[in-house]
Amino acid sequence: TLSCITMISLDLRTNFACALIEYRVEVKMRRVFLVMAACCFLASPAFAAGGAVDLYAAYGQVVDGENDLGLGIRLSLGGTHWMFDVAATGYKTVENTDIIEQNPTENDDVKYRAFDLGLRYLFYEGHKLRPYVGAGLTYASASATYLRLDGGLGMYGMVGMRYGRTPGIQFMAELMYRYTEIEARGTLIDEFDMKIGGLGLQVGMSFVF
């Protein structure tokens, strides 16, 4: 009995230590991402060229082919042709997703937040209608009811357009594709990789200065 209690105690300590390490790693990854964003803005000569703040609604893939609604904000610097972007998008909780590979009959609820850092190139300087393309890094922060989900770093690409006067309020619409793989695990479930994010539509207003 004593040996069983000792083994259980060691197992609990090990699980606690692993969880603490994973939390610290995720916090460090977020800090690195924010530092990268700050460095890009501080090192950029785009401050003198203006910028924009975008507020948008999103609808896109979250996990396991499930789509849901979200809201996002993006801060950009530049605008003549190149723009540095930092964005955050949060999606509604996707319920009853079939993501547990070891037990497909078990469903889980997943919440997904994407933090993006990248570049955009805008065409047709001086025109009201300005198409653009962009790409960069995306950091996925996800949580689930039963599974423990790690954060993960991935890539994104976008194509879109904005219409309106510069400076002023403009309409923006874009297609965004994010690709990120994260690790998932549970109490009685082996660790496995899962894809999060995917194709989405983002529509909103851009406040250009």
Question: How would you describe what is shown here?
Answer:
The protein has 209 residues and is an alpha+beta fold. Helices cover 20% and strands 59% of the residues. The protein has one helix and eleven strands, in the order αβββββββββββ. It has one helix at residues 2-43, and strands spanning 51-63, 66-78, 82-91, 94-97, 108-122, 129-144, 148-149, 152-164, 168-186, 189-196, 199-208. An eight-stranded antiparallel beta barrel has the order 1-2-3-5-6-8-9-11.
In which order are the strands of the major sheet placed? 1-2-3-5-6-8-9-11
Strand content: over 45%
Kindly name the structural category: alpha+beta
Helical residues, percent: 10-25%
Radius of gyration: 21 Å
N- to C-terminal distance: 71 Å
How many E strands?
11
Query: What is the count of helical runs?
Result: 1
Mean pLDDT figure: 81
Shape: elongated
Largest sheet: 8 strands, antiparallel, barrel
Low-pLDDT residue intervals, each spanning 5 or more residues: none
Order of helices and strands: HEEEEEEEEEEE
Topology:
Elements: H1 2-43, E1 51-63, E2 66-78, E3 82-91, E4 94-97, E5 108-122, E6 129-144, E7 148-149, E8 152-164, E9 168-186, E10 189-196, E11 199-208
Name some characteristics of this structure.
elongated; single chain; 11 strands; eight-stranded antiparallel beta barrel; alpha+beta; 209 residues
Give a short summary of the structure.
By secondary structure, the protein is α+β, with helices and mostly antiparallel strands. It is 20% helix and 59% strand. It is built from one helix and eleven strands, in the order H-E-E-E-E-E-E-E-E-E-E-E.
